[in-house]
Design goal:
Blueprint (H helix, E strand, L loop, with lengths): L1 E5 L7 E2 L2 E2 L1 H18 L3 E5 L10 H17 L3 E5 L6 H5 L2 H4 L4 E4 L7 E7 L2 E8 L4 H7 L8 H10 L8 E7 L1 E3 L20 E3 L8 E5 L5 E3 L1 E6 L17 E6 L5 E6 L7 E6 L1 H6 L8 E6 L8 H8 L3 E6 L7 E3 L5 E3 L4 H13 L7 H15 L5
Parallel strand pairs: 1-4, 4-5, 5-6, 8-9, 9-12, 10-11, 12-14, 17-18, 18-19
Antiparallel strand pairs: 1-15, 2-3, 7-8, 13-14, 15-16, 20-21
Helix pairs in contact: 1-2, 5-6
The structure holds manganese (II) ion.
Length: 384
């Protein structure tokens, strides 16, 4: 059996005030075309269908049109779970009725994991649909008081499921699953928890022949080739510019024989970073001027109206910044604000000052800021 694994569509996403709905419609058409050509009838979407818990109407319409074609026209089976960006209740709406048509949506965690059984020439393949959940759901709703975090919540939850390890099993889930090597993270992922670790050890998933993960936006396997983040549908932040987005094609043969390949889908507009001197960027434009562009200027001085002039050539330019304001620990969030990864308050202030004024803050600013930080710490009882 072959199926497609994808995740993190974030329909309705706005990047630097630009709605990406046209790009999303375009790539979803390409996905349908690809599945039709390859005669693949099963699609798995591992959460974050929408970008927000209350998605805009155009995002709902986009999903609706996609599912209408996939289910009614192409007779596909589609399995969807909710991610941390989705509203589980909204996503689950009418899912009971749609199950008969081949559309399976699980938004809320149930004590018994939803199982969809599909058959091929080798027998059944069990797809388990496990939506994003926080440890508090296990701790309070299921009344398991010893649960501390994401890792033991997942371990506990899987331990109470009845899974036949002699059959072929696929898990679809949306969590931060980690292996022994480094994971690639992106700016456009919303942290799953504030404070503490939300990471779940990959070793808890050994009973599954394939684990279809959602949450991390860079395509990557975790621990083994058959435990994988498909990555997001499109590049959703500037730091994802160099990633190669692709869907995963999972080819499941007999038990123990599962192959994974990837396929990049054609995009309407790419998201790229262009670096250089202002005059060079204007004089020698690259091809695909309709792409989403983040410009990093290597000029020393400030250029008045840089964005307006660049947009004459690159109408979809998202952001213009200066290389000199680019310390290693500053990156850019979706609204174009500099995000400082340092946790030290004074370091954050210094980076903020650098990004705005192009120089280090001097006295008496530093002393004043030190006092403000100390007062704020006292007020919120914060210690180092
Ligand atoms: Mn996501």
């Amino acid at each position: 059996m072959k199926f497609i694994h994808t995740a993190d569509w974030h329909l309705g996403k706005v990047v630097y005030q630009r709605s990406m709905i046209d790009d999303q419609r375009f790539i979803l058409d390409k996905l349908l075309e690809f599945m039709k050509t390859e005669e693949i009838k099963v699609l798995v979407i591992a959460g974050d269908i929408y970008d927000r818990s209350i998605p805009p109407a155009e995002a709902v319409n986009c999903l609706n049109e996609f599912l209408d074609k996939a289910i009614n026209e192409y007779k596909m089976t589609v399995m969807i779970i909710s991610g941390n960006h989705d509203s589980s209740d909204r996503l689950e709406f009418a899912s009971g009725i749609m199950g008969k048509q081949g559309l399976h949506i699980v938004g809320n965690l149930e004590k018994e994991m939803k199982k969809i059984v599909l058959e091929d020439e080798h027998g059944p393949v069990n797809f388990y649909l496990l939506p994003f959940f926080k440890p508090s759901v296990i701790k309070y709703d299921m009344e398991v008081s010893e649960i501390q975090g994401f890792d033991d919540a997942m371990q506990y939850y899987l331990s109470i499921q009845d899974i036949d390890i002699n059959q072929r099993n696929v898990l679809i889930t949306h969590q931060f699953v980690s292996g022994s090597s480094d994971m690639i993270q992106s700016e456009s992922e919303m942290p799953l928890s504030v404070g503490g670790t939300s990471q779940i050890g990959v070793e808890h998933f050994e009973m599954f022949d394939y684990v279809a993960l959602g949450h991390l936006h860079a395509p990557q396997s975790i621990g083994r080739p058959t435990c994988r983040y498909s990555g997001s549908l499109l590049k959703y932040s500037v730091d994802e510019a160099k990633q190669h987005k692709a869907i995963a094609i999972v080819d499941m043969d007999v038990k123990g024989k599962t192959e994974v390949t990837t396929h990049p889908l054609e995009v309407l507009r790419d998201l790229r970073v262009i670096r250089g001197l202002f005059k060079d960027i204007l004089t020698y434009p690259s091809s695909n001027t309709q792409d989403y562009i983040a410009v990093v200027l290597e000029d020393d001085g400030m250029i008045v109206d840089a964005m307006d002039q660049i947009r004459q050539i690159y109408p979809n330019c998202l952001t213009v910044s200066y290389h000199r304001n680019e310390p290693d620990n500053v990156s850019f969030d979706l609204s174009g604000q500099a995000v400082v990864k340092a946790t030290d308050h004074m370091a954050i202030f210094k980076e903020f000052y650098m990004a705005n004024f192009g120089e280090e803050p001097v006295e008496p600013l530093v002393t004043i800021m030190t006092e403000i930080i100390e007062k704020a710490r006292e007020r919120y009882n914060e210690t180092d």
